[in-house]
Amino acid sequence: MILYVETNFVMSIAIQAEDLLTSTPNSVRLAMPSLCFAEALTTLEQEGKYSRDFINKLDMQISEAERDKNSENARLLFLQLEQSKISFFRANE
User: What is the pTM of this model?
Assistant: First the structure.
C-alpha cells in the first residue's frame, strides 16, 4: 500500500512525525511530493471565486449604467464596463 502524504501534513504533525516515519509497517510505503498540490488547488479555487465575484459586481454596475437612458455619461460608462468585461474574459482564457 502506498500512503500519499503532502508536506503540509507532515509539518502539522511534526512532533509525531518521527513515530509515523519509524513505525510504519513494511507493507506501507510513504510518498511525499516535493511540492504541495492541495495548496495549489485551493489557490486555484480561490482565484476562481474572486473572478466570479468580480464579474458579478461588474454585471451589477453594467445593469445600473444601462438603466439610465438619459445620461451620455451613463452610456459611456456602460460601454466601458462592457469592454472591461470582454477584456477580462480574454485575459483569463
Answer: 0.56
